[in-house]
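Q: Could you fold this chain for me?
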Amino acid sequence: MNLPVRADSAIPTGDDAALVQGYLNHVTVEKRLADRTVVLYTLDLQRLATHAADARVGLRDVQSTHIRKWIAQMHSAGRSARGIALILSGWRGLYGWLGRQGLIDHNPVQGVRAPKAGKPLPKALGVDESVQLASHVEEADHPALEARDACITELLYGCGLRIGELVGLDVVASASARGWIDAQDGEAHVLGKGSKRRSVPVGRASLAALARWLEQRALWAGDDAALFIGSRGQRLTPQHIRVRLKRRSRLAGLATPVHPHMLRHSFASHVLQSSGDLRAVQELLGHASISTTQVYTRLDFQHLAKVYDAAHPRAHAKGKPPKA
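A: Sure. Below is the predicted structure, expressed as structure tokens.
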């Protein structure tokens, strides 16, 4: 693959060009990386060549001090920490290959890290939006479709299930089942990450939605033991559920397209807001570490801050009334 010409990038010449092309041939032919990945590597190596040319050094003479300087420049220019980490990965691969070829005696990228990325808060719906979505009835849909999609929505929001846990549910418990719902006891038994099983409560609204869906499911039932099936009787895929949920959120009048994990975040945030019990939320979500669950305390604080800003007279500048 030849290096594409870009107005903002220097094309490596001479020895540098041969080194870069040799590495690109390696990842294309020997490692068989996807075309898109090779294109991204090419662009990242163009960027490296530009920096090296500006510093008047060849690629084999680049030092760790150069790499750190260029990282700082990219960061100050606004490139994200994740973007810089991906660029470093491409550079590290080149120098690792050069080292294995005996063309350099050290990897200048080894041990150099990208700036630490801040953890974005998970997106969660407000309580009113969640209830609006769960209560929506799409009368234009076939009754079986409506009952199924309503039940999916209720279980994702009402139980905080991962999408993989949801699609893994079977109609009845069995030795081979990844998960099932015990309607009599009001519990969902699921197989989570790390093949760890857990049980979570199923509320009355979810159980009612389940009963309605099971009545309709008989119209489509085939040999598949899956709880959630399509009109041909086959287990739904995660992608199918994502598409249906996004559509449902739009038809319900929500401004934000909803994906399954957003309902899991909403479940966790709303339980924490009401109970303040972080350990209970950890158990309900099936998190191995409490540190994973602690992100919801930041969501909870945001909720409290909004309440304070809207209600407390000292939260506003003098003479400015609270927002309606």
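A (continued): Residues 1-11, 317-322 have pLDDT under 50 and may be disordered.
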